[in-house]
Amino acid sequence: MSRIAIIGAGPCGLSQLRAFHVAQAKGDDIPEIVCFEKQNDWGGLWNYSWRTGTDEYGESCHNSMYKYLWSNGPKECLEFGDYSFDEHFGRPIPSFPPRQPLREYIIGRAEKSGFRDWVRFAHAVREVRFISDTNQFLVRAVDLVNQTDTEEMFDYVVVATGHFSVPHLPTFSGIDAFPGRVIHGHDFRDAAEFRDQRLLVIGASYSAEDIALQSKKYGAASVTCSYRTGPMGFDWPDGIEELPTIESFDGATAHFSNGERREFDSIILCTGYLHHFPFLPKALRLKTTNRLYPGGLYKGIVWLDNPRLIYLGMQDQYYTFSMFDAQAWYARDIVMGQIDLPSRGEMQADIDKWQQREEALTNPAEDIDFQTDYCKDLSTKVDYSLDWDLVAQNFKDWEHHKEESILSYRDKAFRSPVTQTYAPTHHTSWWEEMNDSTEMFLS
To answer: Rounded to an integer, what distance in angstroms lies between the CA atom of residue 120 and that of residue 320?
Structure first.
């Protein structure tokens, strides 16, 4: 029997485990599966912790979850094709859940599947090495609780560690002498910490957008967002502004490239994350920026230089959970011999075709269509189904709602691509709702 190692039990790893579980439930022979997860529970980034920097074992903290986070996209755009929100909660729920019910949904499918014994919790992978003589991988891991090392051989390795846990930290002239607090968004935990402060958020993507809004919502005196290439351009509420890139700091004063200057009490760097795989040698290590179709990955998942190595979820993402499922189902069928890989030249040509299309994209609607077609390309070859066209339309409607009002887009309702039911409207507008508990949300 072949053996497969899955590194990570967050949403990507859970999708891979679910894919094999579905095959097993149909009576198929599946490989022996070992999933290594360095946290004490599954859920990946969705595991909230007060800790920052390092965890109780001295490992780098993986999650970036913070209090008061609500989904910034409709749940109907991330719904599992085989496990609806209606099924989990017993009824339709609003389209933009906070973090607690979202995590409960993610974990609910895993718990229902009953594959927890496939996961070794508190196990950190230290090294993956390909042994050409046996055409296998040696995986070295450490049991963090007992501090014991293991070395085992596997026929396939799936890297499901994600790429939103190792911060990209740029520097700015004079920031070392800034008298206030400077953190990356990865270490942001509670917006109320910045109550009555003049806050500088450096960045112009989703985390900058949400942290700026959260901080103002929970009492920041003002929030200034600094962009490098272009502003987010929303109709911000009073107290939030956008200014171009920072040239330097002089004490608490930031000097911007347009000649403006502002004084700040704290700085949050929302400057992105690194694709970081210290357990992999250079020959197996993905190096890419955050893009819709990374190079070197056939069908966005198969490592071109060694097709026994598979990466999940390494794309820039409109789609999340359902895309991870499509990738995992496709990876499963490669491992189980139900999908034959073409020649290296054909795989490279397929990568080139997708990347050339990506480079011609000019707006979010085209981005959404691109990633929709990618998900369709995977799912039509496996036993995973979803109304991808409805999801794409939901995404496009969501984009328009954000342009119309950055404060009220979370108050909208969408239709499920699984059950076709419409979500109810939440009882309180997001901007006015200060309680993010599951009990409040479902009340």
So the answer is: 24
